[in-house]
């Protein structure tokens, strides 16, 4: 009830997307995703549903579990479906599911992101000024733009990221 009420309040304010932490109990996760989808349907017929696994699964588990979710609903992205350093595993997940893979929130420097870009390990790149400052966030966004990858500003302090978004041509969403 609390989850539905929260997302319903957001939908009434025009928010058409939401993100949930998942990973421990697939049955409960699918039920909670359905609750989020139903509540956000006030704002959009096709709300943007995002889920965050916090690096909990192996690539094989991620492929299996995301495929199961895809049978029931459309997920905009799965965030951190495998360990941050496993860019080859993230690529396997990306290639094994229809859902976009979002990654990068636990990386810090442009050098940390280069294997993600070079190995096409993610579909959406998470950027934050909190990584190593505004300049680095802009460098990472520019590099992602060079690889034609959209970015999301995550871990958002809100106002600062709202300003950063205006100078990032590949900006997709503000979390």
Descriptive report:
The protein is of the alpha/beta class and 175 residues long. It contains seven helices and seven strands; from the N terminus they run αβαβαβαβαβαβαβ. A seven-stranded parallel β-sheet has the order 1-2-3-4-5-6-7. Strand 6, helix 7 (159-165) and strand 7 (171-174) form a beta-alpha-beta unit. Helix 1 packs parallel to helix 2, helix 3 packs parallel to helix 4 and helix 5 runs parallel beside helix 6. The longest helix is centred in the N-terminal third of the chain and has 15 residues, at 26-40. The chain is globular. The mean pLDDT is 94.
Summary?
The chain is 44% helix and 16% strand. With 175 residues, the protein is of the alpha/beta class.
List keywords for this structure.
175 residues; alpha/beta; 44% helix
Helix and strand topology:
Blueprint: H1 2-12, E1 17-21, H2 26-40, E2 48-52, H3 59-70, E3 77-79, H4 87-96, E4 100-103, H5 110-118, E5 124-127, H6 134-146, E6 151-153, H7 159-165, E7 171-174
Parallel strand pairs: 1-2, 2-3, 3-4, 4-5, 5-6, 6-7
Helix pairs in contact: 1-2, 3-4, 5-6
Form type: globular
Ends apart, CA distance between termini: 23 Å
**Main pleated sheet:** 7 strands, parallel
Can you write the helix and strand succession as a string?
HEHEHEHEHEHEHE
Discrete helix count: 7
Q: Into which percentage range does the β-strand content fall?
A: 15-25%
- Given helix and strand content, the structural type is alpha/beta
Strand order of the largest sheet: 1-2-3-4-5-6-7
The value of Rg in angstroms is 16 Å
Task: Tally the beta strands.
Answer: 7
Mean pLDDT over the full residue set: 94
Query: Stretches where pLDDT falls below 50 for ≥5 residues?
Result: none
